[in-house]
Write a structure and sequence with these properties.
The chain is mainly beta. The strands form two sheets. Strands 2, 4, 5, 6, 9, 10 and 11 form a seven-stranded mixed β-sheet that branches. It is globular. The protein is 0% helix and 55% strand.
Length: 115
Amino acid sequence: QVPLVESGGGLVQGGGSLRLSCVASGSIFSISTMAWYRQAPGKQRESVAGITRSGRTNYADSVQGRFIISRDSAKNTVYLQMNSLKPEDTAVYYCFAYNYRGDYWGQGTQVTVSS
């Protein structure tokens, strides 16, 4: 079983919306933080948004006011609601989770925003 599985990526027109989901395996216990990162071609991976178990959130300046991260800790699931998408949001989006044993990464899901 894959530790983290993302879904919801796809092709969308600029100004549109997508909702990404990431489900962590039940074998990952006591997750403290979950987050979304993204990596565009030729660029380094960057943090997009993060959320603690208590609900504290952080956003990159580039997505503040457009993206919303949320979490269902009982389901080990994190979501990223992406609104007002721009072509520069095009990237592979990766789910991240951290617990007392270490960190975990998903395989990534492609988000492509057309102009």
